[in-house]
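For the sake of transparency, this paper describes our internal protein records without simplification. Because each token names a local backbone shape, the row as a whole describes the fold. One such record is reproduced below, unchanged from the form in which we store it.
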Amino acid sequence: MFYIPNLIGQIGKLSASNSDNRPPAPVNVSVMHLRADSATVSWEVPEGDIIIGFSISQQRMDGKMQRFIREVNTTSRSCVLWDLEEETDYIIQVQSIGLYGESQASKRVHFRTLKKTDRFPSNSSNQGLDKSRHLQTGEMIIIVVVLLMWAAVIALFCRQYDIIKDNDSSNSKEKVKPSSERSTPEHHSGGLLRSKVGHL
């Protein structure tokens, strides 16, 4: 009977020390990349604490469904929630998992999923779409300019080739003429020699 108070006191001290060693609750919990069936939860953890995982509780506002996601051996500060229902209100809370247990739950964060027809609900996705369109337009302009440059180079090459070909043909004609002119006097001289020989 004398040992029971001491044992209870030791248990109380042990639990108090464990609660002191528990990590602080996550802060700046936010929901982004909302879709009809998914969303991304992100949070921050105060520095100086060893965090080995996280735990997320997800619940519908009407209380019909509750889901727990728990991951350890990770330093991730975000998680993707899948299989959500469109146009449905959800509440989430995040806990950090440390070496001596889990932290207190973060503040409750409410979000609502979108319709399936809402493809680009956030401004960031619209900006990304505009950037991709600008990139596609710039790429098309570069391709057209390169093709025009190649066409100009090919046309210039063909023109130079025609000029060189014409010069070669004219030079060959000029080379042929002197040879024909030289053969004529040789023929006449040959004829003269023959006539002289015949005359003798």
Observations:
- The chain is about 50% helix and 25% strand.
